[in-house]
Amino acid sequence: MQSYDDIFPLVRDILVEMFELEPEQIQPATRLYEDLDIDSIDAVDIVVKLKEVTGRKVKPEDFKTVRTIDDVVRAVQNLLED
To answer: What is 4-81's CATH number?
Structure first.
């Protein structure tokens, strides 16, 4: 099981790489859609990348309520605990 502090940098690095964001833009309270201009297609790309990185099947429905970076990290944390 990985801790929040292990998963957050992983998520941050994925977003920096995929969307050419600055690392300091990515904070737990950062909103994906409003603050980072990530749309639904981008969200699918994030889910695919998380599947590659974690080696776990990511169910899209697990990410329907994700709105912030904190939500993404917690969803990954739950995924890894299953």
So the answer is: 1.10.1200.10
What are the structure tokens assigned to 8, written together?
A: 């957050």
Those residues with Cβ within 8 angstroms of residue 38's Cβ, 6 or more apart along the chain or in another chain: 19, 32, 46
Q: Which residues contact 54 (CB under 8 A, 6 or more apart)?
A: 76, 79, 80
Are 73 and 28 spatial neighbours (Cβ–Cβ below 8 Å)? yes
Q: Tell me the average pLDDT across 5-33.
A: 95
For residue 45, give both structure tokens. 């790309």
Residue 1 confidence (pLDDT): 53
CA distances to 4, 47, 57 from 80, rounded to whole Å, are 11, 14, 10
